[in-house]
Amino acid sequence: MFDLILRNGTVIDGTGRPGYKSDVGILGGRIAALGDLSGAESRETIDVSSMAVCPGFIDMHSHSDLSILAHRKAESSISQGITTEVVGNCGWSMAPVKAETRESVLKRLLGSLVNREAFSSLEWNWHSFGEFLDTLEKAGTGVNIVPQVGQSLIRAHVVGTEKRNATRGEIEAMKDLVRESLEEGAWGMSTGRSYRPGGFAPTEEIIALAKVVAKYGGIYATHMKSEGDDLFSAVEEACEIAEKSGVKVEISHHKAVGKKNFGKVHKSLEMIASARQRGLAISVDVYPYEFAQISSLIRLFPEEVWDHIQKASGSGLKSSGDFPTQEEIREALKDPAVIRAIKSMPGLGPVLERVKNYLITNAPSAPDLEGRVLGEYAEEKGLDLADFLVDLLGKDGLGVHAAWPISSDDVYTVVSADFAMVGTDAFTLDRPIYPTPIHPRHYGTFPRVIGRFVRDKKLFSLEDAVKKCTYMPARTLGIPYRGCVEVGFWADLVVFDPTKLEDTATAKKPYDRSLGIEYVLVNGKIALEKGEVRPVFAGKVLRRQ
Ligand SMILES: [Zn+2]
After folding, report:
1. Are 508 and 523 in contact (CB under 8 A)?
2. Domain Amidohydrolase: where (predicted)?
C-alpha cells in the first residue's frame, strides 16, 4: 500500500537519460517503486499521463535564508518547481551572529534587499550557525534548505566592519567559526568578494578559510570581485583559491555585466574549462535573464544624496541604513536648494558615469526609457543626465528601477556550458513586498530554462535541462538521496507539461506565476496542486553530515 501513486507519467529522472513511461509509487516521503504499478494499491492516486515527472529543482544559488522566516510557505519557489535551495550565498548568512553584527551588517542587508518587514518580524533568538538551523527547523519551511555560512558575517563577527587586514589570531578565530559552522551542518562557505566587509579580506585570508572547508569536503561558493571590467582577474582568483586550498569552487551567478563587457564569458568559461582539465573542481551557476539585480535607481547614489533628501523633508537624520521614503524623495526634490546641493556634490560625476551604464526596467513617467540603457537614451534625446534624473526621481521616486544589462547571447553561452547549473539569486516570497523592486527570477527562473530555453531556443534537450537543475547540483554538493527519480530517493518531484512550461514574470510584473507546473511534491507531500501552493511546510533543513 503506497501513500500516493503518480500514474502514467513520463519520468525524466535527472541523470540525462531519455524520459520513459512509468508510474511512481511514494511511501513514507520516499520513492518506493517505479515501473508498472497498475496492480498496486494506494491511498491516493493522481493520473499524470501526458505530463513529465522529474526531480524537484535544486536552486544552486538562493538567498532565501534572508526571507524565509517571514515567508515560510516559499510560494515563489514552490510555484516554479523548486524543492531545495542552497542558501547562505554571496558572503551572507543569518549566522553566526552577535548583537553588533546583527545591527551593523544584517539589518542593513535585510533592509535594502528583502525590505524592512523581514527584519522587524524576526525574533533573533539564535547566535551560532546550528541555532539558526534549529530556528528554521522549528518554524517549518516549504522547501528543503541546504545552508552555507557567509564569510562576510564571519569577518564582521571577528574583525568588525572596517577595512583592514586580519591579525594572525583573528584568522584563527575565523577558521574556528567556519569549522563550527561546518560541524553544525553547513555545506560550505560563500564569499561576496565585491561586498563589504567580507571583500576586505585579501586572497590569502580566503585561502586559509577555504582550506578548512576543503577538509570537510565542503564547497566554496563565490560572488567574485568583478563581473565586468575585471572579470578575468576575478576568475583567476577563484582558480587560485581552488588550487591552493583544494576546495570545490562554485562561481556564483556567472555573467559579464555592462555593454562593454558583453562577450567576455567566452573567455571566462575557457579559463574555467582549462582549470577543470588541470583537475580543479570548479563549476558555475547562472540565472537566465538579460539583466542583473534590480534596485531603485536612487539607491545607487551615495548616502550623501539620501542625507540631503532626508534633511530637506524634515525627517532628520535616521539611523544608518534607513532610507528616504517615496514621499520624502518627491517632496525634497521639489526644493531648488536640495537640487542645487545634490548637483554640486563633488562625488556626483563619477556616480553618473557609472549609472549611465544601467538598464532602466521601470520608469512610470518615462515609459520609453524602460528597457533602455540610461546613458544611450539621454544621449539620443540630447538630455543633461543630472537634470533629467533629478526631474525623473522627483516624479517617480523609488519607482525608477535599474539593473546592469547582460547579453542574452552570454546567458545562452553560460547556461549551455556542461559545468553550469541554475540558481535564482532570489529569495523566496509568499506575498509582494512593495516598494522593494523584485526581479522576475523570483518566480520564473526554472521554467525559463526548462521551458523557453529547451523549446524555443533549443539550447539543450529537456533531459539535459532537467539534469542541470536537479542531478548536477545534488552531485556537486554531495546531497544524498536527492536530485534523481530513483527508488529510495526522497520524493521531491515536479509534475509539469513540457509543452506548456513557461515563465511569465517580467521586470514590470515580477510576481506573475509560471505556467505548466501541475504538481510539486516536497518529501512526498503535495506542496502545489493545480497552481495552488499548500501550506504543508514539508521542507527539511538538510545538515551536512
Ligand atoms: Zn551575489
Report:
1. no
2. 44-218, 428-526
First to last CA, the chain: 32
Asked whether the beta carbons of 55 and 466 are under 8 A apart, the reply is: yes
d(CA 159, CA 271): 33
363 and 332 within one domain: yes
In a shared domain, residues 141 and 248? yes
- The answer to whether residue 531 sits within a structural domain is no
pTM: 0.96
Pairing of strands 525-529, 532-533: antiparallel
| Separation in Å, CA 179 to CA 130, 173, 198 | 12, 10, 17
Cell of 496: 509539469
Q: What is d(CA 387, CA 172) in angstroms, rounded to the nearest whole number?
A: 52
Query: 384, 403, 422: which is the final residue of a domain?
Result: 403
User: What does 495-515 look like in DSSP terms, one character per residue?
Assistant: EE-TTT-B----SSSTTPPPB
Distance from Cα 279 to the centre of ligand 1, integer Å: 26
User: Chain-wide mean pLDDT for the chain?
Assistant: 94
Residue 105 lies in a domain: yes
Number of independent structural domains in the chain: 2
Of the three residues 403, 428, 453, the one that is the final residue of a domain is: 403
Beta-carbon-side half-sphere exposure of residue 180 (alpha carbons within 13 Å): 17
Within-domain flag for 31: no
Contact 260, 216 (CB under 8 A): no
Instruction: State yes or no: pLDDT of 31 exceeds 70.
Output: yes
**Which amino acid makes up residue 424?**
T
* Distance, CA of 528 to CA of 536 (rounded, Å): 9
Find the 428 Cα to ligand 1 centroid distance in Å.
15
Q: How far is CA 35 from CA 56, 278, 455, 487, 526, in A?
A: 19, 42, 28, 10, 21
Q: How far apart are CA 26 and CA 485, in angstroms?
A: 11
pLDDT of residue 323: 74
Distance from the alpha carbon of residue 55 to the mean position of ligand 1, in angstroms: 26
Query: Do 271 and 300 fall within a single domain?
Result: no
Q: Which residues surround ligand 1, an ion (CB under 5 A)?
A: 90, 223
CA 217–ligand 1 middle distance (angstroms): 22
319 has a pLDDT exceeding 70:
no
State the distance from the centre of ligand 1 to the C-alpha of 364, rounded, in angstroms.
28
Q: How far apart are CA 477 and CA 544, in angstroms?
A: 10
Element (H, E) at 7: strand 2-11
Structural domain containing residue 329: 295-403
Query: For position 281, which CATH number holds?
Result: 3.20.20.140
CA of 244 to the centre of ligand 1 (A): 23
Question: Quick one: cell of 274?
Answer: 582549462
Q: How far is the CA of 196 from the centre of ligand 1 (A)?
A: 12
Cα-based torsion angle of the residue sequence 14, 18, 24, 28 in order, rounded to the nearest 10 degrees: -20
Distance from C-alpha of 501 to C-alpha of 517, rounded to nearest angstrom? 7
pLDDT per position as a tens digit, 355-393: 999 999 999 999 999 999 999 999 999 999 999 998 999
